[in-house]
């Protein structure tokens, strides 16, 4: 019951008591005499009226005290105290919003902006584990020429990932965004652990991606990213849940994993986008020379079921300095170098193309072709060899969705590593992979994989130290968990 109602009920009760006690003299001096008795003396009547006025004054004072002690209407009480009946005043609007878990109407503009930011930011987590068995029983339990599934006969953590993303939303007036991918586990060392590429790999080792985005309001919107991102050279990517197979191809392991720099995507229409990058180098956050690598390419959708990507990458991957002991002048840790004179200046050219075709809602085909050529010297001086080193080949993929929970995929791959750029020796590498997927639940995937690698040269470890074989066969069980608000591929 509201405070006003309480006061009015008290006053009504007081008046009734006084009127009864006064024998019906509620109208003061205008009250007629009783028909059954004599009239009251005037002095007695005055005294009763005075008592009546005193009672009314006392009741008014009590009402004021009750009003002063009652809480404001917008104070939220506990659930056990929030008893509402048909006779009580309706709760205030702000109390109703808080009780129902809705946004408080009294939030400031800054509070609302913070909530809107959190609604548009996704936090996503992934956990990728596996058990692989190599039938060669290799010394040291190592699977040769693998990118991620590198250990045999061990339960292993491939990678644990955390992704923060605040993507641009042009339709709502926000043209900027950012993304940060943190990664831990075996894959982290594979991605960023080569001192020949990174002067200080330990600084950036757990940061797989970190870039900001701005959509320039020209044409259909020019997308500009600045920072570090996973390379788009090659059809395969970092996150296992988005791949057809559990293991990665030779080409994924050979082509760049990431770049640091700026990239631009210019959509000419809904089916054709031009791409341009300028970066420090391949797998380099900190450059090892003064040359800036570049990529020119496009992504086309000639049909709604077909996506085609073409890339040409021009770089110079030879360092112009080497690590040296620091002198008397203090510098940043790991930044003491000696000049390489003359420094090799040969160029690296990568031609990379891949296409995917969703033939039916259940059947997917994909093809990739690559040509990699590198020279040590651009213009060889007498006595310097400028013969180029070549690596070329490609891969073919398919995936068929048997049921909503079951799928089968395959990969056949060939790499002609004639100059040993990938494997260290001149050889022809091949591999065949078959993968079965079982989707346990949304965000939990089991993968069963059989893979056979073989070469025309002894390459793969055996169970005898120093003895190599021309092939290796592995069976792998992968378990991949992921959760978060980001939809689609990561």
Report on the architecture of this protein:
This protein has 490 residues and is of the alpha+beta class. The chain has two domains: 3-99, no CATH class; 128-483, Porin (Beta Barrel), CATH 2.40.160. It is built from seven helices and 20 strands. It has helices spanning 3-21, 42-69, 93-99, 109-119, 186-191, 201-204, 250-254, and strands at residues 122-134, 154-166, 176-184, 207-216, 222-230, 258-269, 272-279, 293-303, 306-315, 321-323, 337-339, 348-358, 363-374, 389-401, 406-417, 427-441, 444-455, 460-461, 468-469, 471-483. The strands form three sheets. Strands 1-2-3-4-5-6-7-8-9-12-13-14-15-16-17-20 form a 16-stranded antiparallel β-barrel. Strands 10-11 form a two-stranded antiparallel sheet. A two-stranded antiparallel ribbon has the order 18-19. Strand 4 (207-216) and strand 5 (222-230) form a beta hairpin. The radius of gyration is 39 Å and the shape is elongated. The two termini are 57 Å apart. Residues 16-40 and 72-103 have low confidence and may be disordered.
